[in-house]
Amino acid sequence: MFVAPAFAQESTETEQHTETGAEHGAEGIFPPFDSSTYASQLLWLAITFGLFYLFLNKVVLPRIGGILEVRSGRIAQDLDQAAKLKEEADAAVAAYEQELADARSKANTIGQEARDSAKAEAEAERRKVEAALESQLAEAEARIALIKDAAMRDVGQIAEETAGLIVQELVGAKVEKSAVSAAVRAAKG
After folding, report:
1. What single string gives the DSSP state of each residue in 157-168?
2. CA–CA separation, 15 and 13 (whole Å)
3. In a 3-state reduction of DSSP, which class is residue 149?
4. Which of 52, 73, 105, 183 is deepest in the core (most CB within 10 A)?
């Protein structure tokens, strides 16, 4: 028995198909362009289009509509939430600005109080220093007065001694101290 190769069998089948195709086909026209099949093509087109339209209308469009509604709802919800968050942010900014203004006012008040307190302390310290200086000045003046009095007493004694020595040198005799003291007192007064 002889077995024909596989490619040989295929070629015979192809020949048979072409032969049968030649038998069916009238003049070798492409079937969609054959005017004798237009009516059946239009019928099947209408049936297919109607089924496709029903499929779209009953299955696809409701799903797409549902998705669009869900997205629309989600977008509206997100917009509402964004508006709410914007209002909260605006309120937070206003509160921050108010707190900042309050803090600045409080800082100015604290600064003014600190300046007033420092000024009062400086004034009190100045008065204290002035009082200390005045007391030291009074003490110095008292000491000067004591020293002046002592010096004046010493000047009186020195004047008496000097006058006594001068008279003694001029006269050549010793003069009594009481007489010289009376003469010096008379010259002072």
Report:
1. HHHHHHHHHHHH
2. 5
3. helix
4. 183
Please provide the DSSP assignment of 121-147 as one string. HHHHHHHHHHHHHHHHHHHHHHHHHHH
Would you give the DSSP letter of residue 27? Answer: S
Task: Name residue, tokens 């192809």.
Answer: 14
pTM over 0.85: no
Q: Which residues, including other chains, have CB under 8 Å from residue 168's CB and lie 6 or more apart?
A: 174, 175
Per-residue pLDDT tens over the stretch 1-30: 455 555 555 555 545 545 444 445 456 888
Q: Domain locations in the chain? A: 40-188
Length of the chain, in residues: 189
Task: Read off the pLDDT of residues 107-121 as tens digits, 9 standing for 90 and up.
Answer: 999 999 999 999 999
Contact present, 62 and 54 (Cβ < 8 Å): no
